[in-house]
Amino acid sequence: MPGFRSPRPEPDGAVEPARRAAGEVLNVRYRAGVVGERSRVVHAATWTPRGVLITLCGMPLDPALVEESSGMPCMRCVRIAADRANGDG
Ligand SMILES: [Zn+2]
Known about the structure:
Blueprint: E1 25-30, E2 43-47, E3 53-55, E4 60-61, E5 66-68, H1 75-85
Antiparallel strand pairs: 1-2, 1-5, 2-3, 3-4
Bound molecules: zinc ion.
The site of zinc ion has 7 residues, from α1.
């Protein structure tokens, strides 16, 4: 989005996640200022055909409000991903 300025500078360079093929997993979290810092855990999310990200733990995310990032992971997403990797999914 040209001209868009985040209300706060992001030290790690916040970028709206690019659209990817459905099923590709992204690591995303809410941008600074959207939610409290304690809620800014990193979820594993995939694109839906409707242009919304949905996390493994079942939360829909507006792509305009999130950034691809690393950081403190969402434990529910971690557990679900581990279960899937173990062949339970
Ligand atoms: Zn999650």
